[in-house]
Amino acid sequence: MASKSGTAGEGILETIKTVVYALLIAGVFRTLFFQPFWIPSGSMKDTLLIGDFLFVNKMAYGYSRYSCPFSICPISGRLLASEPDRGDVVVFRHPANGSDFIKRLIGLPGDTIQMKAGRLHINGQPVAVEDAGTFEEVKAPQGPQQISPRCANDPVGEGGVCIKERQIETLPEGTRHSILNIGDGWADDTPAFSVPEGNYFFMGDNRDNSQDSRFALATGGVGMVPAEYLIGRADRIMFSSAGSSLFYIWTWRADRLFKAVE
């Protein structure tokens, strides 16, 4: 007859084994299939809002060492590689600081990208845009970082209506997406950037509030992103919280539940 201490020990051992198995399964799932990603900043407004929670499709472009947590995958280059499409919303590892970024893929290898008077030009041709009214939000700190939005109608007091000009941009292959404009700045008129082979050029949809490929790594930007740094494609928002924590269910935005990322 087993002693009580022996039974208790076996129970603890089974619990530990269950936890280990669960962690292994979760790790494999996260590495091979889908990675959770929470939007911490407003650089992709109004496509993605601070507090959006989504899963990144890691099967979309294949796998590199950056597909694994802490970049521990023993992979050189990309395994089962597939080319991304212009217009995809992509999560990638920042080439310098190691953090994960999410931006829209604008430039493919061999492209020339330039901004002229706030208008995107791809290979010397202006990209089609059409006015789409305004994007409005409350001027108030957002998310855990308590980031206050920039507004085209600044100065705006806290609690006031923050307005940005909104347009629909249509990329050469037909992808249509919203972009926002706050005002004139250096990033509205840039040199022509040539995208090297094996690299990609990314921009935020909130064009005047995004550190992206228009800014060199040396200045805190993203620069050109090598293919091996791609992690996956953002396809759908699972839920979205307008509060300072994802766990504040009463602050969830009902209109963003299971919303497709376009």
Bin the strand percentage.
Answer: 25-35%
- CATH topology assignment: Umud Fragment, subunit A
Question: Tally of extended strands?
Answer: 14
Oligomerization status of the protein chains: single chain
Summed up, the domain count is: 1
Q: What's the N-to-C terminus distance?
A: 64 Å
Active site: 43, 103
Subcellular location: Membrane
Main location: membrane
GO cellular component, one term: membrane
Describe this structure in words.
It is a single chain. The chain is mostly beta strands and 262 residues long. The chain has a single domain, classed as Umud Fragment, subunit A, CATH 2.10.109.10. The protein contains one helix and 14 strands. The chain has one helix at residues 4-32; strands at 34-38, 52-57, 89-93, 100-107, 112-116, 119-122, 125-126, 128-138, 161-170, 176-181, 193-194, 199-203, 225-226, 230-240. The protein has a seven-stranded antiparallel beta sheet with strand order 1-2-14-3-4-12-13. A four-stranded antiparallel beta sheet has the order 7-6-5-11, with no helix packed on it. A three-stranded antiparallel beta sheet has the order 8-9-10, with no helix packed on it. Strand 9 (161-170) and strand 10 (176-181) form a beta hairpin. The longest helix is centred in the N-terminal third of the chain and has 29 residues, at 4-32. It is globular, with a radius of gyration of 21 Å. Its main location: membrane.
Provide key terms for this protein.
single chain, 262 residues, mainly beta, Umud Fragment, subunit A, seven-stranded antiparallel β-sheet, four-stranded antiparallel β-sheet, 14 strands, globular, Signal peptidase I, serine-type endopeptidase activity, signal peptidase activity
